[in-house]
Design brief:
By secondary structure, the protein is α/β, with parallel strands linked by helices. The protein has 2 domains: about 1-150, NAD(P)-binding Rossmann-like Domain (Rossmann fold, 3-Layer(aba) Sandwich); about 165-190 and about 220-275 and about 290-325, no CATH class. Helix content is about 35%, strand content about 20%. The chain has 11 helices and 15 strands. The strands form 5 sheets. It has a 7-stranded parallel sheet with strand order 3-2-1-4-5-6-11, sandwiched between helices. Helix 7 (about 225-235) packs across helix 10. The protein is globular, with a radius of gyration of 20 Å. Bound molecules: NADP nicotinamide-adenine-dinucleotide phosphate.
């Protein structure tokens, strides 16, 4: 197969290119090359999607294209240049305005209204999601055949977002002590997908020219199970202290990511559906997920090999202060 990866220099698109090369495919990565290195065995075509016309830069003879773009204009010009290929567009679950309903999937969740202009996706999840809706439509309308994948939280080696990485980093930090602040309640829903499992599914789907629209999510689990599996994967010996969300809110702790946050914690019930999508449909379509323990172990190995990688969330001092304040309260 001759595969075009629009990207390839970081995280998911890089993992896709790497997996396709491993299987012996002819892989072209088209990007600027400024986000990182391209995998060995790929051919790099320099493309700045804001400045260059893909039709002039790419030869057009591809069996499949994988695109991770967020800006509609970038997708529009690429689809116009390569309408005959099988397209796999990587979207996001942020296309759904409903973050509350567990068990969501493409068949039962409405979409945001599309934003067809290029805005700054960092404006917020609604703008990002609405631009992705427009990108999806450009692909499904313009490509000969297509598959749309809407991932949830993607984690694993090479994740530079610093969200999930907080957990392997914290749980492996022996100097920080045995007691770990765990946010919310053990039964709270959590859902992640390992970047390598998503990449494998994307390459399988390119080979098989799979069509349709799917969420790209791992099995729905609980925060208690995720932390237990992470501890197991890291062979750590720790005590979790569950601190209810009301206390975290009161202490001005932020959810999800960033400074003074507890990553992967989302307020309930507002976000009861965001990390609880239906995982059976992607599994029925071939997605296979490795264990949470393996993801944790390999992510820690990547973090140790890349000590400058950003990890967001509470500092160890903030965590210790919060645990002390919670002890005083109880
Ligand atoms: N991370 C998550 O948890 C999560 C969750 C849901 C969905 N998603 C989606 O999953 C995908 C992740 O993709 P990713 O990991 O490969 O990272 P990404 O940051 O989405 O994509 C980066 C790729 O796009 C290329 N690129 C950026 N600007 C470009 C330009 N002007 N011209 C040409 N290429 C350009 C980059 O190459 P150069 O910079 O080298 O040019 C890089 O290879 C995205 O579609 C994202 O929306 C992510």
């Amino acid at each position: 197969m001759k595969l075009l990866v629009l990207g390839g220099s970081v995280f998911l698109s890089r993992a896709v290119a790497e997996e396709a090369v491993r299987r012996g495919h002819d892989v072209v990565c088209a990007c600027r090359g400024s986000s990182g290195s391209l995998p060995d065995g790929t051919r790099h075509v320099v493309l700045d999607r804001d400045a260059d016309d893909p039709a002039a830069v790419l030869d057009g003879d591809f069996d499949a294209v994988v695109d991770v773009a967020r800006h509609p204009s970038r997708v529009r010009s690429a689809v116009a240049a390569l309408p005959d290929a099988h397209w796999i567009f990587v979207s996001t679950i942020n296309v759904y305005p409903d973050n509350t309903t567990p068990g969501g999937h493409p068949g039962n969740l409405a979409l945001l209204d599309p934003i067809e202009t290029d805005e700054d996706p960092a404006t917020g999840p609604d703008v990002y999601g609405a631009m992705k809706v427009a990108c999806e439509q450009i692909v499904t309308d313009g490509a000969a055949t297509s598959m749309v994948i809407r991932p949830g939280l993607i984690v694993g080696p090479d994740d530079r977002s610093g969200r999930y990485t907080y957990w392997p980093a914290r749980l492996a930090d022996k100097a920080a002590g045995r007691e770990v602040l765990a946010p919310g309640a053990p039964e709270d829903p959590v859902q992640i997908i390992d970047v390598r499992d998503l990449a494998t599914w994307i390459v399988d789907s390119a080979e098989q020219r799979r069509t349709g629209i799917f969420d790209g999510v791992g099995p729905a689990t609980t925060r208690g199970a995720l932390l237990a599996e992470t501890i197991k994967g890291l062979e750590a010996d720790l005590d979790l202290t569950w601190v209810p969300q009301e206390f975290l809110v009161e202490q001005k702790v932020e959810p999800w990511s960033g400074p003074r946050s507890v990553p992967l914690w989302l307020p309930l019930p507002e976000y009861a559906g965001m990390l609880a999508h239906d995982a059976d449909l992607p599994i029925a379509a071939g997605l296979r997920n490795r264990s949470l323990a393996e993801t944790a172990r390999d992510t820690l190995a990547w973090l140790r090999a890349n000590p400058d990688a950003e990890v967001t969330g509470l500092t160890r001092d903030e965590e210790a202060e919060l645990l002390a304040a919670w002890r005083e309260r109880t």
